[in-house]
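lol ok so funny story. i was supposed to be doing the assay writeup but got distracted and ended up predicting the structure for this chain instead. priorities right. anyway since i did it might as well share w the group, maybe its usefull for someone
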Amino acid sequence: MNARTTLVEMARHNLSYAASGEFPREDDIFRVPASNYYDEGRWKLEIDRVFKRMPLLLALSCELKAPGDYKAMTAVDVPVLMCRGKDGKVRAFVNMCRHRGAVLMPDGSGNANRFSCPYHAWTYDQAGALVGVYAAEDFGDIDKSCNGLVELPTCERAGLIWVILKHDSTLDFDRFLSGYDALLEQFGFADWTLFDRRTLEGPNWKIAYDGYMDLYHIPILHRATFGADMPNRAIYYPFGPHQRLTFPDPSLAEKAEDEWSTTHLLDGVWTVFPHVSIASFGGGGRSVMVSQLFPGKRPEESITVQNYVMQTPPNEEQRAEAQAQFAMLEVVVRDEDYATGIAQQKALMTGAMPDVLFGRNEGGGHRFHTWVDRIIDTDDEDLNALFESG
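and the output, tada:
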């Protein structure tokens, strides 16, 4: 089945629920121990067994368009250097010189033919090979072919770039993505433009992420900004650990299926386990916000990088509209979602409530927390089988 056919089936399924006045619900209420949101031991397990073993969506292809384009960032305390080589392939490395471990490039982006260590000027090419040793005659014999940058497993699909922080991981990207990338490919992100980016501080990463996976709160928490007329019922489509969150688009009912545009079929929120939300606006066509969530320095903290991405470079009028929309989204997330989440964090840390509840209408949370538990409980050698089983 091709991706458009799948999207049409989803839309058809959504409309059938709209016609019936019903929507799918889980079998029962789901409980998550409240301590999962603040216990330090649990938090360390999530970092070590989820964030350092799962593919993380660290970049958009449009950030690394040309050979030599690079992006250096710190992901869960791991310095990462991504670069598109002359062969067009994106590679990721531990951002660490093989001489004494100095960080090669500061966090940021640019274009470079070589990467030279600021400590002793050892130099690497775009493919991570060691090509120069400063004062080599004084240093001593060294096999350059065995001392290139430590490469990290990397996958570029659908205009998005995933990196596994564990350099010796054998996790299969196809099994992890579970066919979800074929649907994300319909956006055409490889040709889009990164318009703007900002970083927000929030509560525990799961409290922050929970909010991206339900509509139940939208008409209440966001009534003063955009949510007053929005639905509070969501329909979820899981693909392995990833989930699309959507609701019926009544405008589609007025058209024949062959007239349904791909842009409208892509509306909704696309969550990419374990830490990314892709929120589509304006009929899925002109802009999306890609939110990357990372644990902070303590269990009760997180960092979210908001990337506002546009299908085409905006003209002057579109730029003003985009700036206004992105500013509104900052207010929504910072002053509504995360302000509420930070207060929620403090309340949970009193220990007065044993469990956090997810209703039958909050299936996204059911599946997300179940996957976090399953991955924590699965050893390295069994991860591929876990994703194979779904």
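The chain has a mean pLDDT of 96. The first strand starts at residue 30 and ends at 33.
back to the writeup now i swear
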